[in-house]
Amino acid sequence: MLIPKNNANLMRTKILVRLASSYLENKFAEADRIPLELRPKDGEVSRCCVYKDRAVLKYRCMAGLGHCPDEETDELTTLKEYGQKALERRAAPKNKLSVIDIACSACIKSQYVITNVCRGCFAQPCRLNCPKEAISIVNGQAHIDPSKCVNCGKCYEVCPYHSVVKIPVPCEEACPVGAISKDEFGKEHIDAEKCISCGRCLASCPFGAVVERSQMIDVMREIKETDKKVVAMLAPAVAGQFSSSLEHLAGALKAFGFADVVEVAVGADITTQKEAAEFVERMEAGKPFMTTSCCPAYYRAAQIHIPEIRPFVSDTKTPMYYTAELLKQEHPDCVAVFIGPCLAKRAEAEYDPHVDYVLTFEELGAMLVAAGINVDDCPEVSFAQVSHAQGRQFPISGGVAGAVASLVGSKVDIRPEKIDGLTKDNIKLLKRYALKGGENNMLEVMCCEGGCVSGPGCIALSKKAARAVEAYAQSGDSLTVDKKAE
What we know:
With 486 residues, the chain is α/β, with parallel strands linked by helices. The protein has helices at residues 7-24, 34-38, 50-64, 79-88, 125-129, 154-158, 170-174, 200-204, 216-225, 246-256, 265-284, 296-304, 319-330, 344-349, 361-370, 399-408, 424-436, 462-473, and strands at 97-99, 111-114, 135-138, 141-144, 164-167, 180-182, 188-190, 210-212, 230-234, 260-263, 290-291, 335-340, 357-360, 416-420, 442-446. It has three domains: 7-105 and 176-214, no CATH class; 111-167, 2-Layer Sandwich (Alpha-Beta Plaits); 218-473, Fe-only Hydrogenase (Larger Subunit), Chain L, domain 3 (3-Layer(aba) Sandwich). It has 18 helices and 15 strands. The two termini are 19 Å apart.
């Protein structure tokens, strides 16, 4: 899932930085000024007027403070009050993606449209291939009758001039499981029962109407206002996210106030060992194939949307689980904070007794900027626990299967396949595998195309990050990432 730089993403980052600064400077009482400062009266506007812009920004600030805009109904509650509520809570806010209704543009229904590029050609493949006879030729150009069109896309596929375009609803188009849809007013709503927390709707909405509940303020409160040992667990996808060595980044985390920094690839090593043993056991028992289980968005999709595949999903826990388990065994009273590229990890953490909070790389970056910490200027610090490279491959597509295959060796025949991205088509592919099997007996399923390096919480381009992760995996016990790889 490529998340290009755009105003919606930039504004989300600005809000996170402002909120973090307000907390660190003890200025939560002035939080209500953030929408005004981001949209001054004589400045540019994104919507009909500056006042609507400010209203939307207030809701986005609420999400940054860990509140749900679609659950909070009292519009007179101030951001100062929401900030105070955030400081008073003692448990991580529940994971939830929601839509700011006044920010949603109520996009028209997804449809195909014939543009004026149409030449009215003699071949007329669009008309002849339309299964519903919805296309006619009027005044030398093709036209689609919307009352007959079923959005099959045949005309789009066969037009030699590419004159047919699809007008999508970006969030609905991105969601692989149909969890987001329109209400009677055309506004989008997310069905929490169907949602797998992949974050694709958030990344794809061009109006920034989809938001998540952040746990950033909670983590900063634990560091600043309690005596607890707060430990950062850095996911291996962090390689390439910041333009510095990982030792410098660990130093920046220590400078911010984290007591220690642990490499989640350590847990990935354990996942590799257990999943390899489980694969061998299943194959020796005559099972046709096994899928990986370390992507929480895929795991939830399998549980509620692909019931056919459930018997074939690995029972092995995720790298986050095993890393936090080791951490809590050594420091039972510590606060374990997972930092990674994934929104679905927040949902996973709700069922993991060892993980207290989850941050994205974007939130970590905002915290460091707010604190005035330049990563490159920080002293190098070694991680408390270091992986031996197998688990470092996990964030890139093919990495999990490759790590498992390296341990399986010649014990049993292993034929891995990458299911690179949990798309609607790949969900159908998984259902076919469940019913009929296939040539491959080890399926690595990643929700994000390209792997975790394409997660919605990333701040670096996925290809650049993938190169850095590959260098990171090849570096053995060293944490340093080659600058060329970045």
